[in-house]
From TrEMBL:
InterPro entries: Iojap/RsfS/C7orf30 (IPR004394), NT_sf (IPR043519). Its main location: cytoplasm. The gene is rsfS. Pfam families: RsfS. It comes from the Bacteria. It is found in: Cytoplasm. Keywords: Cytoplasm, Repressor, Translation regulation. It comes from Pendulispora rubella. Interacts with ribosomal protein uL14 (rplN). This is Ribosomal silencing factor RsfS. Residues 1-20, 33-57 are annotated as: Disordered.
Length: 177
């Protein structure tokens, strides 16, 4: 059924609008109004240096994330990343992402991390995904660990969701250098 003349929906599909940016996705009238509302830029506003954001994560959470990374490197994890999400989410300060090359390596990574942190008196609150080991999630409270197989990691692309999160440098132990 075709709409009456003059009432056709002239809104383009969502995907092309998303590619145009936030203002363009709102429509031409709203985008133009946003430009006008912004007003002229002053020289003072142009000279203001960007504010460096500092992490609100606790040192204990940072040390836990680093200990997890070191344990994962010991078990030959690949694609290891530590994302600082403190202040962006309320469930964790850090996400530790890594890839195992097989289901057996994913299980070995989770067991190695659990064993290394048990020596530091830290136990996971929860471990999910071990029967199939495509994606294992370990919750240490302020640090959440995601251990993926390569295909699953690409499918969910958590790094892409957290492009604005700061990355911690991963320390490489002496014996792995």
């Amino acid at each position: 059924m075709k709409p009456a003349k003059g009432t056709e929906d002239e809104t383009p599909h969502l995907a092309p609008r998303r590619a145009l940016g936030a203002k363009a996705a709102l429509g031409p009238k709203v985008a133009a109004g946003a430009k006008a509302a912004a007003g002229p830029k002053t020289k003072k506003a142009l000279r203001t240096p960007p504010v460096e954001s500092t992490s609100v994560a606790s040192d204990e959470a940072r040390q836990t994330a680093i200990a997890i990374a070191v344990a994962a490197l010991d078990k030959k994890a690949v694609g290891l990343e530590i994302l600082d999400v403190a202040g962006k989410v309320d469930y964790a300060d850090f996400l530790v992402l890594m890839t195992g090359r097989s289901d057996r390596q994913v299980v070995a990574l989770s067991q190695g991390i659990e064993e290394a942190l048990r020596k530091k008196s830290r136990r996971p609150l929860s471990v999910e995904g071990l029967p199939h080991a495509n994606w294992v999630l370990m919750d240490f409270g302020d640090v959440v660990v995601h251990i993926f197989q390569d295909e699953t990691r690409g499918l969910y692309d958590l790094e892409g969701l957290w492009l604005d999160a700061r990355r911690l440098s991963v320390p490489i132990p002496e014996d792995l250098r």
